[in-house]
Amino acid sequence: MLRGGSAALARFFAGVFVSGLGVVGLGVVAACPAAAEIINPSVLQDERAPIAKPALNQPALNKPTLKKQAPAAPLPGNTEPVRGDRQLDLKIDYIDNQIYNPSTGGYDKVHLRGYTGKGVDPKAPYVSPTIEAIPGDTVRITLDNKLPAGPQPGDPGCMPGAQMPDIPHCFNGTNLHTHGLWVSPTGNSDNVLLSINPQTRFTYEYNIPSDHPSGTFWYHTHRHGSTALQVSSGMAGALIIRGNRFPTPTAHGDLDTLIPTSAIPERVLVMQQIQYACRGPAAKPGELGPIKQDANGRYICDPGDVGGIEGYDQFGPGTWPASGRYTSLNGLVFDPNNPLKAKQGRIERWRMIHAGVRDTISLQFFKVRDGKLKPGTKTLLKADATAAFIKDTCGTTPVPYMQVAVDGLTMGAGQMTRLATLQPGYRVDALVVFPDAGRYCVIDSSAPKSGVVNGLDVGPRLLAVVDVAAGAPVKDVESYINGKLLTLAKANMPDDVKSTVIADLKNGTKLTSFTPHPDVTDDEVKGNGTQELTFFIDTTGPDVKFEVGNTLNTADVKPYDPTRIDRSLPLGKAQEWTLQSHFVSHPFHIHVNPFQVVSILDPNGKDVSAPGAVDDAGGTPPDPQYPGLKGVWKDTLWIKSLIPQSANGIYTIKVRTRYQRYIGEYVLHCHILDHEDQGMMQNVAVVLPDQVVGTPQGDTVQVESQMQPGGHSGHK
Predict the structure, then answer these.
(1) Which of 199, 219, 555, 652 has its CA 20 to 30 A from that of 604?
(2) CATH number, domain at 588?
(3) Virtual torsion, Cα 216, 221, 225, 228, nearest 10 deg
(4) Could you give the CA distance from residue 463 to residue 443 in angstroms, rounded to a whole number?
(5) Residue pLDDT, tens place only, 526-544
(6) Of 154, 136, 183, 118, whose CA–CA distance to 662 is shortest?
């Protein structure tokens, strides 16, 4: 249901917002000064004629009603999509193209699996197009798998999953997962237990509920046995749910109404690790040849070679940093002569999506030192010399920015940071402004070994350069962003909530009127039992086993079995989960229902999730990724373990979740996707309360917690 005063709604549908610099129409967003410099991934287009967007008139009694109007010309990547059904087509095939290699200054030819469709950018085919929708839409996506059938070198082939569930296989089979969407997991909805085999078409249908949160989500292939191989090829893209619901005195609204694209241009950044390799001749038919490497183990491609991702010897501990490959942004690898473009003093909403598999990104911005990295200068960036290059080229004072949402869900308050940690599967929405004109380095900074996927101190990496044109100077980034938010609230919020929104913004940049879910209280979980989960890798036998258990020890850990339901969860109830890892760290992801962080206890029992906490159990420097997560809603979370470096290195994480609306079978798993492909996954089923199998794992643990502000009645 549309919410907010009729005048505010009319203003939204008319597309007029006060930007702080004047009045700008949503219908001409692409023509805003400097906004056209932002180049986002292309938007996947409906194969049919667009459906008209609803408009508002103002009849008697001042009650808004809907009236059809002719659809405007599409403005890909920075506009409001039209409402209604969407029919989208994605063809899956091998794509021949090239990827820039900063260590050679040239391009490597590659032959990779990818999506093609209406709107796919032929110049950047290894990032999938953005899918846009509105709450209440029905989105149908037809996958047409054109990949070759039959035996492939290194691929055991496609067979029923129970035959070899935890050995990588079926490299050309696929399916589709809408990561973070609150939709049904069954039938032809977000069902990842299907295998769309080569030369097969299948149409997914996602009925997005009208009360679905707006936010930054993503989609990717999720066929168990080949997920990592396909996602690492670039088969992933942004999925943005756009919202137009203003807050009311009784219900919360969408953050989009506070920071519309007319006032705060958005930059969509899909971050990937495309770990292509060139290979030598195979020893015998049906096998893959060895990966070509230099004396230091870096991947190399000789003239005439074509790189690919064809085997799981390209995954494993330390393989990403050892490869010498580079994280790509929207399918393009760092090139100082192809910079991002921004304007001094222009606040942007950066929608950042970690769509990679085997790297942790610690995002920072630094001004380029005077006289360094001049436009047009040839820059070779050898992987083993990157740290020295960054030290010589980039400044030492990081630019602060404000996080406003994680995993697509608006936070209870904006959080200023100088470094945001993105693990595989994470999303971060941040308000970014560059205070001075000139060039800036976008850095994946060094991080503690226990806080990153590979468990190695690999040093910083240069992700991109931003050219910032002269504009409005900024003395203090935090006060500048807060001032802009207050200006927008005063201009655009409905009268019956305006004073509340403004008061919240003045009190610690609280976003209470825009959070999508109420807090899960002690009373709500009381008596419902609890869930426990342990990740574990068993290295004692001849074959390494990737396992998940239902207790806080390794006695019952098991690798994935597609014929087994590991957990039955009661529809309509809420439960508290306790999460641990007993061998190295893993990002936990569960489909369908998000969860709220209650506490994160280090091995010494200290809660490191509160704002300002110091997570130094793994040594110095402290790990910055946990402080500030208390009370935050997520769908993917790093489960840290100091094992094997420290025998007493287990972190204990408590989260709470609701099993709302949807029944059926789906999965939870480690989002290091080669771990998932090899067994670190469970089947769970939400069932009617009287059909729960087994005994709850314990009485509800009463936890005294101080949640972020944001409890409310939810979207209605």
Answers:
(1) 555
(2) 2.60.40.420
(3) -60
(4) 6
(5) 999 999 999 999 999 899 9
(6) 183
Cβ atoms 257, 14 nearer than 8 A: no
Residue 154 located in a structural domain? no
- Examine the domain organization and report whether 427 and 555 are in the same domain: no
Q: Say if residues 195 and 158 touch (Cβ distance below 8 Å).
A: yes
**Collapsing DSSP states into helix, strand and coil, what is residue 288?**
coil
704 vs 150: which has the higher pLDDT: 150
Helix axes 477-492, 495-506, angle to 10 degrees: 170
Sign of CA dihedral 52, 58, 59, 64: positive
Residue-wise pLDDT tens digits, 190-213: 999 999 999 999 999 999 999 999
Give me the phi and psi of 697, to 5 degrees please.
-80, 0
Same domain flag for 468 and 508: no
Residue 565: strand, helix, or coil: coil
The pTM is what? 0.89
The number of folded domains in the chain is: 3
* Residue span of the structural domain in which 487 resides: 479-513
Looking at residue 19, its pLDDT comes to 41
Asked if 424 contacts 354 with a C-beta cutoff of 8 angstroms, the reply is yes
Q: Reduced to 3 states, what is the DSSP secondary structure of residue 691?
A: helix
Question: Quick one: which of 459, 457, 422, 443 has its CA closest to 638?
Answer: 422
Q: Exposed/middle/buried for 96, CB within 10 Å: 0-12, 13-18, 19+?
A: exposed
Six-digit token pair at 215?
A: 């936010």
- With a cut of 60, say whether residue 634 has pLDDT above it: yes
Same domain, 534 and 616: yes
Residue 201: half-sphere exposure toward Cβ, Cα within 13 Å: 9
19-to-6, 16, 253, 263 alpha-carbon distances in Å: 20, 9, 19, 4
Same-domain pairing of 641 and 685 = yes
Name the nearest CA neighbour of 125 among 107, 111, 139, 145: 111
CA–CA gap between residue 77 and residue 268 (Å, rounded): 8
Among 5-9, 241-245, 349-353, 443-447, whose mean pLDDT is lowest?
A: 5-9
User: DSSP 3-state helix, strand, coil percentages of the chain (rounded to 5)?
Assistant: 15, 35, 55
Query: Do 686 and 543 lie in a common domain?
Result: yes
pLDDT tens track for 82-125? 557 889 999 999 999 999 998 888 999 999 999 987 778 787 88
Pairing, β 636-639 against β 461-469: unpaired
The CA distance from 339 to 365, in Å, is 14
The verdict on 505 and 550 lying in the same domain is no
pLDDT interval class at 448 (50, 70, 90):
confident
Helix, strand, or coil here: 607?
A: strand
Measured CA to CA in angstroms, residue 666 lies from 253, 313, 484, 568, 638 at distances of 29, 28, 42, 11, 20
**Separation CA 143–CA 235 (nearest Å):** 12
- Give CA separation, 85 vs 220, 385, 554, 569, 600, in Å: 21, 51, 47, 32, 41
Q: Specify if 271 maps to a domain.
A: no
Q: Given this model, what pLDDT does residue 162 score?
A: 64
**How remote is the C-alpha of 437 from its chain's centroid?**
29
Are 684 and 594 in the same domain?
Answer: yes
What is the Cα–Cα distance from 76 to 435, expressed in whole angstroms?
Answer: 28
- CA dist 423 and 359 (Å) reads 7
Rounded Cα distance, 537 and 584, in Å: 8
The tens digit of pLDDT for each residue in 393-446 reads: 999 999 999 999 999 999 999 999 999 999 999 999 999 999 999 999 999 997
Q: Which of 583, 604, 183, 482 is nearest to 614 (CA)?
A: 604
